[in-house]
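Progress narrative, Year 2. Work on Nucleotide-diphospho-sugar transferase domain-containing protein from Adineta ricciae advanced from sequence curation to structure prediction during this period.
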Amino acid sequence: MSKSHANRPCISIGLLGLLISIVYLAANHRLILHVKSIPTVQIQSKSVVMKPRAYIITADCYSTRFNATKQNVERAFPNFFEVVCFLAIPLNDSRISFHSSAILFRKWASNLLAFVELWTYEIPKHCAQNELQWSFIFEDDVNFYDLSKVSLKNYISPLQEMMSHPDVHLKDGFFYLGICEPKYNNDTQMIVLKDTNNSVISKRNYGYCLHATAITAKRSRIFWGEIASYRPNANEKSLDYQLREFSMRSKSYFYTFGSNLHYPPGTGHFGVAFQDRGKFWSTVT
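Result:
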């Protein structure tokens, strides 16, 4: 056999190998082009905005008082709050050491303990991821100033404006939605809420009552400690007296949302929220 015939199988095998390589590379190239042509799909996650909690302090979560207050809150702030029933502290709680005949002192202690539990434990726990998150506390006798008198459908927009005001949100971390017999500090800035056509004004003050308040988690952790550091005082009575004393002595004046709104007439109630004494009696006095 000649050398040329002997080399033919080798050449054939070589050509076959080269052909297979070319086919493989071509197929691989088409695959790469195919992969590159697939459009990139971007999945955007929507951030979940938590509703602020509105705690209603009550002795019975199924009572007329609780349900009426819940309806009033939801009418004034429709679909804005997560309403939560917070049970009042029983008058026979072991932490209340007053003599059984001193029923008024027991009521004051019960009210104080409910707020302390909310401020010190419940609110910081719920708002652990955001210390500037607002929470609201209502007692179970609250109603709201007639919206038609301020030409509003609800109080949500002005409340949001109030909540985001730098002095209120970052400095104070607390404000009243309703207060009794306020004493105003006229040396401080007045907030005129724009979304109300200047019909709702907020001023710094101190006074009585805690039927409707707002507080951030940051403030709630330390608030009772601040108030208690000014005890004992001349008004060692219910918590609202003690907060009033703290405000006067420390010169810590807080805003009232709607301090120009007075209702019912002659009752000393100012703000968008008032104690509806025409419907419910006080559980603290």
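The longest helix spans residues 3-36. The first strand starts at residue 53 and ends at 58.
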